[in-house]
Amino acid sequence: MGFNFPNAPSLGQSYKPAGGYQYVWDGVAWRVLEAPQLFATAQSRNRIVNGAMQISQENGSTPSATANWYAADQWSVSFVSTGSISTGRAATVTPNNSKYRYQFYVATGDASLAATEYAMIQHKIEGIRTADFGWGTASAKQVVLRFGWKSPAGTYSVNIANSASNRNYLANFTISAGQANTDTTQTLVIPGDTTGTWLTDTGVGCSLYFGIAAGTNYQGVAGWQGGSFLVGTSANTNGIATTGNTFELFDVGLYLDPDATGRAPQWQMPDEAEELRACQRYWRLNEDTRAVAPATGTNFRAVGPLYPPMRTAVPAVALGPAPNYHIWSIANTAVVTIAGNYSVYNTLDFAGTLATTQTGQMAASVTPASVKINARM
Questions:
Q1: Cis peptide leading into residue 321 (ω within 30°)
Q2: What is the gyration radius of the CA atoms in the chain, in angstroms?
Q3: 189 and 76, same structural domain?
Q4: Helices (H) then strands (E): counts for the chain
Q5: Domain assignment of residue 99, given as a range
Q6: Helices (H), the chain
Q7: 280, 311, 333: which is the final residue of a domain?
Q8: Range from 49-63, 147-161, 316-330 carrying the lowest mean pLDDT
């Protein structure tokens, strides 16, 4: 029995004749793929952390007009504009039944985009998550990016860049008038980069940028290229031109595509508890840290473990507003001054000085919600 394969197929195009297997065009020949073998384990694993925006430890669903605001863990906004932009996490169900989206809102339009102005949503991926891409070597592999997008009509962009931002892959995607302000699914095939330096350690393996507006200083061309900090191409629409423009990003997946199928696997909702642990590798609120203080004197120390381990051995530690610590003894409670705090090798360590000398056994406790520990890239 013969099959009538399509003429002039495109890369990744599939064909399934009646009663036959599914085939995919790999650029040279039609490759047969049985359904159970369509995606290998490595290919089906999403390299994005918090792609469904489930976790937002720092800011919840509170919007902000501040640049570099983390509306969801691992997802922030970067912009330079004379207009005003607000970002937040929107509790709007996606077509895949995810509960949240990343929302970018133009509060005040910037109709005349200067060369030095831009706006984008960004996500950084640790090198150990993308080491098997093989980028920067002769065996570099193709990947597939799939994401949900809702916005006004126009042409926008995606850039994937290395840690030094001197290797960039730019691709445009277009929202037609008929798709305007409706949920769409975008799929982009990204060929592996055989040049450049791509980290495979705990540094930035790659950065992912969703370009909404790009001044001429931040424009490149489609495909792989050198240059630094590219946001879009000359084809990009100025998405921040009009007050009220709203952009939503959701259900983001980046997948290894070793068989060059050009297809992303079916979206899978991450387990929320596992996703929280993945996010805590980069940013977290302190668990309750407490220890017995000296029986007599003015000094105390509170030490506690950090689990799961964080990305760096010495993350930054920031104390929130008082009251953020408690000291108590058999006789009384004292106000203290925190003399120093640090985190090293996944242990949080606080040193403090009591306002007055204490007698009797004391215990020191640092309130969990007041201590922010940051190992972001």
A1: no
A2: 25
A3: yes
A4: 3, 26
A5: 44-280
A6: 41-44, 127-130, 272-280
A7: 280
A8: 316-330
Residue 41 pLDDT greater than 60, yes or no: no
Phi, psi at 278, each rounded to 5° = -65, -40
| 161 shares its domain with 16 | no
Q: Of 359, 301, 363, nearest to 328 (Cα)?
A: 363
Amino acid at 87: T
Last residue of a domain, one of 242, 258, 280: 280
Same domain for 54 and 34, yes or no, is no
Residue 325 in tokens: 């610590």
- pLDDT tens digits, one per residue of 108-165: 999 999 999 999 999 999 999 999 999 999 999 999 999 999 999 999 999 999 999 9
For position 330, what pLDDT does the model report? 39
Give the pair of three-digit tokens for residue 108: 């005040």
Instruction: Name the pTM for this structure.
Output: 0.83
Give residue 184's identity as a one-letter amino acid code: T
Cα–Cα distance measured from residue 28 to residue 9, given in angstroms and rounded to the nearest whole number:
10
Most distant CA pair in the chain: distance in Å?
Answer: 93
